[in-house]
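S1.2 Input.
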Amino acid sequence: MTDRNADLFERAKALIPGGVNSPVRAFRAVGGTPRFVQRAQGAHFWDANGKRHIDYIGSWGPMILGHGHPAVLDAVQKAATDGFSFGAPTEREVELAEAIVDLVPSIEMVRLVSSGTEAGMSTIRLARGATGRKKIIKFEGCYHGHADALLVKAGSGLATFGNPTSAGVPPEVVQHTLVLEYNNVAQLDAAFAEHGADIACLIIEPIAGNMNFVRASVPFMTRCRELCTQHGALLAFDEVMTGFRVALGGAQSVYAKLIPGFEPDMTVMGKVIGGGMPLAAFGGKRAVMEQLAPLGPVYQAGTLSGNPVATACGLATLAEIRKPGFFDALSARTRSLVDGLQAEARKAGVPFSADSEGGMFGFFLLPELPQHYQAVMKTDGAVFNKLFHGLLDRGVYIAPALYEAGFVSAAHSAQDIEETLAAAAQVFGALR
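S1.3 Output.
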């Protein structure tokens, strides 16, 4: 039988760098042939060979309702009939902004854009413009899009400036970016002690999904807020992955329950707010957001920003996740997967730890959950690759990379979870 996935990959490699339009899709980390998706419905997709897979990436997070939700399809079809793009304001842009502001108390104004990278880049520019400062803090293992100033790895010592992690990024572009260890309060204190007066913002994934799934500890997050307030820096939450995914109010609502009065100054959003369409946003306090053009001196623009089809998709998605009990059910289903995987690994004697929040989860082939990137790196990559391919062969699709979180949708059924755990039990048994 002809492998259409392999055939398509060969065709793609002749014309597209690496055969893919986003690197992780190439399976370079795990080996093998990428699956080319032909169609998807609910919690499943079918590849070019017609094989069904239980989908635990969900377009890397946006498909919180599953694929092809009827209410979302209806909204998108109606919007497309009215027109694909206008380059002029629409009522739905206002409605989506109202929904975001209503659901996220820290946001008073919001600007819609087309991608998480664009939202993160614009947030950094706005923070610098609003504070008149140059330096930013980010954390090793956190990803905020592929803007030049954010493609940085940690420097060689405590609170040192980072080095570019991509060719084409001159060192001088990242000279104002400090890269610290996630969950390291001592480094955080040292950085602000040395550079506090020059720091425009601290940007952080509150639950890092690009080193699989690592939570910021409560003491660490508390200190981030205290130091930003003390030194006049802006605290920016990158909730592209966690926003409307881990809770209705995002990860910041989770921390607000643990830290009295807690909220960030700025928020970067994407994925769920577009429901699978290219749509993202950044928002914050009115005084900061009013520094954006056309009101203020910080320039930002986008031809497709607030696209009418994308906003229809996002609004329909938010309407569904606002329904009573939605996140309770989603959290319970996700937790059943995580607990089941831990139980199967334990039976097989495979080192394993896992965590979840809302519809987002992650696991490590380690006996304890890591707290920062260097600990994450201790995971056995070769064993993970065997786990990945063992599940893939059995029709279970998890992220094809060791350092990526997974996602459960409202469309995942108890039967999907049972099927996944049965496959995992077979694979874990073979790993012994």
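S1.4 Remarks. Residues 156-160 have pLDDT under 50 and may be disordered.
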